């Protein structure tokens, strides 16, 4: 049986993409020991939008339990932070930042793989101190890891 608890959203509530932004901020194990019966759904009734939380329960809940669940859900809704990003939004932001960092490397932009190799090799050969090497690695390593991770994620996403 699914028990439904209705909670009014705060003023200025941003549902994101079908409420997914909000759902990504909810505890994964439900509330007060009751597992979700699915993510909250946004409804509109008589011009008022509200969120319906569904809980999986064995039988009907008593009024005290329903009230406690409603209070807990209201606290979750009130704590919602629209500035937090979903995992998809974070991935897109990281991709944009990675592209920006790559574009900032003007010495490598527009070069072939062989030309990039030669430039990097010449720079390594020109190191005269550990501090110079450390400075270059500080710039290059995040880019290398981001590029490899992005490439792997593209392959994994393509398989799904």
Q: Care to describe what's here?
A:
- This protein has helices at residues 20-23, 63-78, 87-104, 113-125, 130-159; strands at residues 2-7, 41-45, 48-56.
- It has 160 residues and is an alpha+beta fold.
- The chain folds into 2 domains: 2-78, no CATH class; 87-159, no CATH class.
- A hairpin with a 2-residue loop joins strand 2 (41-45) and strand 3.
- It is elongated, with a radius of gyration of 25 Å.
List the main descriptive attributes of the protein structure presented here.
160 residues; alpha+beta; 3-stranded antiparallel beta sheet; 5 helices; 12% strand
Q: SSE layout and pairings?
A:
Blueprint: E1 2-7, H1 20-23, E2 41-45, E3 48-56, H2 63-78, H3 87-104, H4 113-125, H5 130-159
Antiparallel strand pairs: 1-3, 2-3
Helix pairs in contact: 3-5
Short structural description:
This protein is α+β, with helices and mostly antiparallel strands and 160 residues long. Helix content is 51%, strand content 12%.
